[in-house]
Amino acid sequence: MSQNTCCQIWADTQKELDVMLQREREEFQEPQEDPEEAMKMLATAYVQYLAILRKLDEAHAPLIHQQKRAAVRQALDGVMGRILEIKGEMVALEKCECHSMAAVLKELQRVPEDIEIPIPKYFIQENLGILQYREKYLHEILLNAGLIEQEVVTAMTLEEAIGVIQVAERARQGRARAAFMRRIYLEEKRQSRTQEQQTKSPDEAATCIQKVWRGHRQRKETERLREEEMIFLGMSLPPELEVMISLQKTNVLEGEFQERADYSFVHELRAAEGPHIKETFQEEITQCFLECRHVTGRFPDYPLEKAGGSKAIIVEKHPEEIVEELAAKKALAEAQKNEKDKKKKEAKEPAPEKKPEVEKPVRNESRL
Question: Which residues does the annotated region (Disordered) include (predicted)?
Fold first, then answer.
């Protein structure tokens, strides 16, 4: 098994383990009053943890990277510990070490072999000497008790030993002869090529060069005709259009990259320098207000948004000039307000009634 496959199995198993832990946090927080439901929940987790244990053991055995082996080993030990905890809870719940899991296996679509507890391979490898000693000691006990019989070891006869040695020696000689013949063949081939190159006449050399050149020219011509046919059929674009399209794509990509770079630069600059600039402006505004108070004896009014807000303050002016400007703006605002009030007052007052004009009698001077 390759290292990539082991890492992939480890990653998939780790995801399953995370899902199991999350589900346990959700399900095991609330106690189950029904013993059957509690047993079913424990048995389901037990079977699933056994499957995770097999996968982790499968990924751990072929791994070579020591740090990865240590990480998988830690997860493997944790899963085994959790299996023991669940087994203890099951035994405490049913007061029995043998449990019926047929319903759980059927629900999870598993076979009975899936509930067999596997022995991790690293446990056997690390304790191989102890296990061999135990097996040998147990064999001696059984042999002394007469429960097993001593196996008869048949020795190899002289003829059989000679035959094995002859087979091995003949195989070695055959491999050496094959390697020697291969070297001779390659040397003869190299010498024949050198002789052919040296014995060629100028006409033969020219013919060889012509063959190579004509073949190259014909391949280029065939490739050109194929390209023209593809362009004629509309299955490919002319080289000029392909170059233009590639240039357009390149320009678009460069523009997008430049926009992203500018956008990121502005945001990075704002994130890095924004708080400092804001703090500096606040200090300048505070200092300006303090200087105005020192000159005039009171704090000036903050400029309105129409007047520019803090922008009207952050200028290179003397505090007295700023106070005069603010006072002038305030007077102008009051004058405008008074004018508006006057107009409103005039609009509310009723207009005076006009008296009808009496026509004066016209004297007839003709009678006079």
Answer: 333-368
